């Protein structure tokens, strides 16, 4: 009986720690430098330096007990950094020719896992500002698996890593689509 009295507080502490959330970081969600350098040379001339980001929607702040989430500001910063890296970001967003609208539709996370796979569904729309013409519109789904070895002692950290990887994958897919636009 004495063993149960000492084990129970430890189990309760572990359960509380397991539910803590770790917010996703924008630097980890952006396109890596090597990929950005590769994509930069394929971007249409008409888009270079002409894309501004409209307010990002659909994100959620990470709560203390409800697991890792992706916030709108973090997603917005990742998008801005990636657009800058591939040469599309407008230096003066208020007079840009195009607007990128982004909405995080879903982030599918496991409750408990060792190797953690998160699926993200993000809707991207590229709109010409003057006419309102939609040039590109796609809901991009991607998944990323964070291995147990990446964060052995912290499931919230693995979920955070998987969130960041899934968002980064959707962003890369969208950026790889842009060179195919007929502008």
UniProtKB/TrEMBL annotation:
<protein>
    <recommendedName>
        <fullName>ABC-type transport auxiliary lipoprotein component domain-containing protein</fullName>
    </recommendedName>
</protein>
<keyword id="KW-0732">Signal</keyword>
<feature type="signal peptide">
    <location>
        <begin position="1"/>
        <end position="18"/>
    </location>
</feature>
């Amino acid at each position: 009986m004495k063993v149960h009295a000492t084990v129970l507080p430890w189990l309760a502490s572990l359960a509380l720690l397991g539910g803590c959330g770790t917010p996703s970081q924008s630097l980890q969600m952006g396109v890596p430098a090597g990929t950005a350098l590769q994509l930069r040379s394929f971007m249409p001339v008409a888009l270079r330096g002409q894309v501004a980001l409209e307010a990002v929607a659909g994100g959620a702040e990470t709560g203390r007990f409800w697991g890792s989430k992706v916030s709108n500001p973090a997603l917005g910063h990742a998008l801005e950094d990636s657009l800058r890296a591939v040469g599309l970001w407008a230096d003066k967003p208020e007079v840009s020719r195009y607007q990128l609208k982004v909405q995080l539709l879903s982030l599918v996370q496991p409750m408990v896992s060792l190797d953690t796979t998160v699926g993200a569904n993000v809707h991207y729309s590229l709109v010409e500002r003057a006419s309102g013409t939609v040039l590109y519109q796609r809901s991009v789904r991607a998944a990323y698996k964070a291995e147990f070895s990446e964060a052995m002692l912290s499931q919230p950290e693995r979920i955070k890593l998987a969130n960041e990887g899934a968002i980064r994958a959707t962003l890369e897919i969208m950026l790889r689509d842009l060179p195919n636009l007929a502008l």
